[in-house]
Structure formats: structure tokens, C-alpha cells
Backbone:
């Protein structure tokens, strides 16, 4: 049996339903839906309030749209059509902010203003901003590019226009054919398709409602246009966890989840990758995005380590803390039903594994263990106490590249003697030997000829 075939326990489902019911009541929203995904599929959904279907009712998802736009940009990088360090001007000339880079736009470090000038863009027709000059205004930069993280809706407008310019088709068409259709997200659209929730403003001091307008955002659409469902967003969360070769491979999705911007001052548990928000909550790292538009709020969080994702959608302009709720749903499942480890199985063959390199190694007097991995890579970890450790994948030249931790991006080399035997490991200039300070070993600075001794 695998973890994907194990249903949630009734007690866990009751806790999840209770949490969204409390969220709906305390948040004073006409309806609220939640869903949980595990092992790549939705394993629970629930609703509280006036809603037709927990899993299939559309809600506006606001800025979660940005993550979809980022995926389109990363596809262009994957195909070699642009580089993350490319200036915007190279692919989308004439914006007056062409020196900012693609990576800076993705990570909100381009220094662009947060909002478009003029009337509240989320409640006014996109036709009122027909060109990028209307979106950016006369003062497009709020900070010097590359200096600070400053969330920018206009930055993702530029990224959507960049996708259109490079692809030669509208952003909406690229999104549908390159992301939504391959992932089976048939209920994610740029305009509402029934059944969908109506967006409401709830009076802050009375239990009465006011309908919110639904506007086509025009050029601003890549920053917040989409409608989606709990079921579709669970599919998207599975993609953000594992990737999908039809859209983006695992390595590119991992790049998106890697911190690319510093946390905002005062929020050292938060950060931003390439189109995704990052946070530390309840002792775990969450990846995803929040979203809001008049009449709607949304939250999607994923814990890769726990193999749990959660989605919360509501139809009120303010009140429901959907991001907090989604994080709570992740916590409930992760704590009540911890992830089951994959069954251990011996390899069918071990020819390609570097078995001769496995076992203890010493950096000075620090003891490390090197273990061969099933994928042909190796893992180097301290044998006791804290310390620097990483996994490494094999490179064609016989070296290994660090994948995480302190040695992420560093190269591990095997240094051999003239007779072909292994002398030591070289890791970013650090020397690892089979014995601690063995005379004759290639230890920088040499080893005292007197060897080990007592104090007298």
C-alpha cells in the first residue's frame, strides 16, 4: 500500500470541515470552500455556506494568477527563448523600464510600483488602460531595480505582455494551451463559467451584502484575472510539487520554489521565489500564493516535505483569512496523518553506483558519511551533531553537483593518486580524507610528523 491509496480518517475530515466552518462564520463570507490534496490528487473537499459544489464551483483567485503567468515565463526559459537575467528590453522593447530583468519581475525585485495609476484597476474596465504606458504611468519605479522586494501587480502585467510578445499569441491563449489543458484544469478560465460564486462586499458593521463588479482586467489580466475551482487548484498544487514534463520539468519547478527575493522587513518567516510566495508556519515551509479581487479571496499552500496541499476560496471582499485557513488545513492533515515513507526496496542493479566511495570521510576531525543514492548520485552528511550536508547528482565528467544545503551548486570531485587509488574528496576546496589527519594524506597545511599524542 502507498500513501496515495490511504484515505483520510473520518476524524481528520471532521477537523477539516470544522476549520472551514469556523472560517466561514468568523470571516462573514457568503460561502467558503476548502480542499486538500495529497500524493498528487484531491483527497478531501468541503464547503460551508451558500455554495453549489465544494470542488467544482468557480471563484476568482486574484493573484494566484501570477503563479500561472510565471509558469509561462519559465517555459520560455526552458525552451531557450529567453534568460532570467535578460533585460526586459531585449524581448519587450519600448516600456521605459527595459533595464529590469525577467528574474527581477518574477521575484518582485524590479522596483516597480505596486499598482497602476488612475482609478482602482480591479474595479474598472481594462479598456481604461489600453497600453502599457497607461499601466505603468509617469513614475513606474518606486525603488531602484534589484534592491528590495516590492510586490508589483504592474510587473506581472509586463510579464504577461512579454509572453505574448515572444509567443506571438495572446497571454490567455498561451495559458490555455500550454498549462491549463495539459494539466487537465478545464474549470480554470479568464471569465466565469457556471457554476460560479457571485462576489460580494460584506458590510463591516452589519450583516448585509453589496454585489461587487466583475471587470475584464485587460492588460492587467496576467496579474489577477483567473477564475478557478478547488479541484483544479489541487491539480495545480500537485504540479508545483512534482512538475510535469508536458508543462515544466521538476528542476524548473524547483527553481520557482527557491527563494529569489529577501523577506520583507518585519516578516523574516516569509519570502518570494519565482512567481510563488514562501513562508514558514507551524515549523514547516509552505509554498503557494494568496489572491484577492473585489468580492473574492483565495489561498493555496503546499508543504512539499509533508506531501500535503490545501486550497481555500471565499466570495467576500474582506474577512475570511484564506491564507491562514489553507495553512491550517495543511497542518491538520500533516499532524494527524503524517506522510508515510516510501517502502524500502533493494536496487535491481548497482553497477553504476559509486560503492567504493561510500562510508566514513573526515573533514579535519569532523566525521561525515557518504551514501550512494538510487539515482546514481551521492549524499554527504555529518555523522553526529549539526553540520553541513548536501545531496549531489552526477555530472558527465565524473563529478557531482550539490543540490541543496551548504553545498548547493558546489562541485564534489574525487582526487586520485597516480596508481588510480582514491586520495581524497575535494568539495569546494575542502578536503575530505578517509582518516582524520592521517600522515601523508593531502591535508592543506600538512600533518604534524609526530602524529597523534597525549598531553605529556
Residues:
Amino acid at each position: 500500500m502507498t500513501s496515495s491509496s490511504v484515505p483520510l480518517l473520518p476524524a481528520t475530515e471532521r477537523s477539516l470541515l470544522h476549520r472551514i466552518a469556523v472560517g466561514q462564520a468568523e470571516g462573514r463570507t457568503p460561502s467558503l470552500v476548502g480542499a486538500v490534496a495529497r500524493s498528487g490528487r484531491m483527497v478531501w473537499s468541503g464547503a460551508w455556506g451558500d455554495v453549489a459544489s465544494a470542488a467544482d464551483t468557480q471563484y476568482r483567485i486574484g493573484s494566484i494568477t501570477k503563479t500561472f503567468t510565471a509558469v509561462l515565463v519559465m517555459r520560455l526559459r526552458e525552451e531557450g527563448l529567453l534568460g532570467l537575467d535578460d533585460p526586459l528590453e531585449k524581448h519587450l522593447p519600448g516600456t521605459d523600464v527595459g533595464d529590469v530583468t525577467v528574474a527581477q519581475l518574477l521575484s518582485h525585485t524590479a522596483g516597480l510600483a505596486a499598482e497602476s495609476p488612475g482609478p482602482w484597476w480591479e474595479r474598472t474596465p481594462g479598456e481604461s488602460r489600453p497600453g502599457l504606458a497607461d499601466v505603468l504611468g509617469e513614475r513606474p519605479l518606486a525603488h531602484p531595480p534589484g534592491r528590495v522586494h516590492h510586490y508589483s501587480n504592474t510587473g506581472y502585467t509586463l510579464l504577461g505582455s512579454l509572453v505574448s510578445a515572444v509567443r506571438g499569441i495572446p497571454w490567455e491563449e498561451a495559458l490555455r494551451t500550454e498549462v491549463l489543458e495539459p494539466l487537465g484544469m478545464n474549470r480554470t478560465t479568464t471569465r466565469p463559467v457556471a457554476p460560479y460564486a457571485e462576489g460580494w462586499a460584506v458590510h463591516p458593521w452589519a450583516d448585509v451584502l453589496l454585489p461587487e463588479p466583475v471587470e475584464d482586467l485587460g492588460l492587467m489580466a496576467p496579474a489577477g484575472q483567473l477564475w478557478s475551482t478547488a479541484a483544479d487548484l489541487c491539480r495545480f498544487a500537485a504540479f508545483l510539487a512534482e512538475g510535469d514534463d508536458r508543462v515544466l520539468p521538476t528542476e524548473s519547478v524547483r527553481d520557482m520554489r527557491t527563494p529569489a527575493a529577501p523577506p520583507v522587513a518585519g516578516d523574516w518567516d516569509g519570502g518570494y521565489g519565482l512567481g510563488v510566495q514562501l513562508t514558514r508556519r507551524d515549523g514547516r515551509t509552505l509554498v503557494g500564493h494568496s489572491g484577492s479581487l473585489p468580492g473574492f479571496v483565495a489561498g493555496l499552500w503546499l508543504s512539499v516535505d509533508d506531501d500535503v496541499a490545501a486550497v481555500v476560496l471565499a466570495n467576500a471582499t474582506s474577512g475570511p483569512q484564506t491564507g491562514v485557513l489553507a495553512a491550517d488545513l495543511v497542518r491538520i492533515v500533516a499532524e494527524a496523518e503524517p506522510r508515510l515513507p516510501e517502502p524500502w526496496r533493494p536496487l535491481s542493479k548497482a553497477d553504476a553506483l559509486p560503492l567504493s566511495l561510500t562510508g566514513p570521510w573526515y573533514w579535519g576531525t569532523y566525521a561525515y558519511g557518504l551514501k550512494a543514492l538510487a539515482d546514481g548520485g551521492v549524499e554527504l552528511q555529518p555523522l553526529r551533531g549539526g553540520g553541513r550536508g548536501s545531496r549531489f547528482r552526477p555530472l558527465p565528467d565524473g563529478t557531482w553537483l550539490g543540490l541543496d544545503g551548504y553545498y548547493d551548486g558546489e562541485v564534489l570531485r574525487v582526487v586520485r593518486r597516480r596508481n588510480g587509488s582514491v586520495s581524497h574528496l575535494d568539495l569546494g576546496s575542502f578536503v575530505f580524507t578517509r582518516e582524520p589527519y592521517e600522515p601523508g594524506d593531502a591535508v592543506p597545511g600538512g600533518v604534524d610528523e609526530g602524529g597523534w599524542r597525549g598531553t605529556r
